[in-house]
Write a structure and sequence with these properties.
7 strands, about 190 residues, alpha/beta, about 40% helix, five-stranded parallel beta sheet, homotetramer, about 20% strand, two-stranded antiparallel ribbon, 7 helices
């Protein structure tokens, strides 16, 4: 006998197996907005963590030194070995949260492209993940970066395309002409 | 043959075994300031996560409903079952970060007193933890809450004492008359 | 002999006479983003102040009491007499900044419609003002409010249309399908 | 016949003549906290504006260029001619707010010492002002800057003493060993 799907108050089927939604996209592509909309439209409580959460957890000195993450004048971000070690521990921790029962939206920037995805894939082995590419035309993203006023100029353009090269997705959304909430509904419809 | 202690640039011995420093104290007692100072004075890179990180990861709806965390008009905070389940997953995740090699300062408010400590103690089984009580005279904490201007009034007073009742510490610091940086130095001297 | 127009680095004529650009629109209609873009595209330095600047300057107690500004559960905002008196002084101050030589973008919400506009018009008597309506479809604005995650839910919908009723503009822009930067360029082209 | 003083709910006489309280002190000396406490303890509604309000109103490009304000690596701040012109307009605007009936706490950093004070004094001619020096031991301020975690390192030390040289006060407070709220009470007691 088939168990009928449970339907949440907004018409989405309660996710039975998907544990993580990983949003990958460049700076100012709209990932955080989509994450907040997903938390509202999905019937279960989902946590949201991401690159920003991790960077805030770092010592201030590691946000601007060769050992850590570096925001260059042109917006390119480079990282060092201590950053990489802490990042690996961070990813293992997020995986453990999911294994302990939490549903999690991860708001990420795969600066290393497929190598970044592989780090997450390995850590999440055995968990059901929905991989989502969040695209935005680089000129539009640069304009939104300007309008936000709280980001290092140039990051949007430098990251817009490179973070997607060689990365595999279950679904891609594009915020150039589509609102965050509409993208969130499209993602919600893909959960299993 | 005894391995000589490695000394970091600020004169503190590199921590060999301590993996987590857990700061417990009421709102506006000064935990976050101590955590940032620890990240600066300790020779290794330490991550900082805490109650605030977790609450920001929650859906907006769970920060103000019976199912989640609730900030009442008098500053008392109550939580529900969904919050508790996500919190357990969060704690398991922080423990996994430490087991994966990260050193972590945890900035916590043990609203449940010894029950809160037991939840962390169980999850951190086998890891070396330094338990630190962060005290502040409740009237002074209330004044600092007012001066910060971004907190719900009344939390400082309602939490100042209750979070410490029945909790065991390796070390206690008191920010009433002692600066955050001085407290951080005292804690750093206790790492093993 | 006609003095040739001075052209700034982004191709816009240096504003000769316009002293203030007043952006009026509902919450989450995109005014602040347009203001920041204007500050970037215009050749002269322009200050930006607005409703948010004023509300932050108020005592905390006046942001949630009958005497001041009140954000109701449905997002409707009401204000009292003390708020009105301080607001009048604030507007007089912004007018004085412009009379003293500053160019100013004002990011406003005319909750009182034409009465709000009249308060500004009277204070700015003799100064050249560009009045700009910032529109956004109310459903789209509500989705952006959700995506921002830092606003009281319901304000976008309750303010979207009412703030424009009976207000006169030199120019209207609509952010529903147009980016902030594009709107800023349209406004910049209207300065005299 | 003498008019009896009106007493507010917290025991302070309602200020009859003082229109502005100008707090001058270095970064991380505690001015903003004192300003928020003053807004709470004083019986009338007081606005608070200051250097931070002004810097936020500037175009992003003027916060890091020779034409505007510059935060150097050592925390020293230098300003250029366009900044000075906008600042003069800003000060004139704050004076106009006070002349229009607002009571205002001004949270300032007199980087130019007596020249900075003179700019304010000239603009505020005829208004009753309470000039308050906010001191803090430079080593303590540097520790608090570290604990805050959101300020450019080095500003506290570089500004601690220089902003007070040659400046005249009606009252000085010192936050090294005194809480913001206690300082606010001392200031409140000096209003006339």
């Amino acid at each position: 006998m088939k168990i009928p799907a449970r339907i949440g108050p907004r018409g989405y089927r309660v996710a039975v197996t998907t544990r993580l939604i990983i949003l990958n996209g460049g700076s100012s592509s709209g990932k955080s907005g989509i994450a907040r909309c997903l938390q509202t439209v999905l019937p279960e409580p989902w946590l949201t963590v991401g690159t920003d959460t991790f960077v805030e957890a770092l010592p201030a000195a590691m946000r601007g030194s060769d050992a850590g993450i570096e925001f260059a004048a042109d917006g390119v971000v480079s990282v060092g070995p201590e950053f990489r070690a802490l990042e690996a521990a961070w990813i293992a921790g997020v995986a453990a949260m999911a294994r302990s029962g939490a549903r999690i939206v991860v708001d990420e920037v795969f600066l290393g492209g497929p190598a970044s995805q592989q780090r997450w894939r390995t850590a999440l082995d055995g968990l059901e993940v929905l991989w989502v590419g969040v695209r935005c035309d680089s000129e539009v993203a640069a304009g939104r970066e300007l309008a936000r006023g709280d980001r290092v100029g140039g990051m949007a353009v430098s990251q817009a395309d490179v973070v997607h090269v060689g990365v595999d997705y279950d679904l891609e959304v594009d915020t150039t002409h589509t609102e965050s909430l509409t993208c969130a509904h499209a993602i919600a419809a893909h959960l299993s």
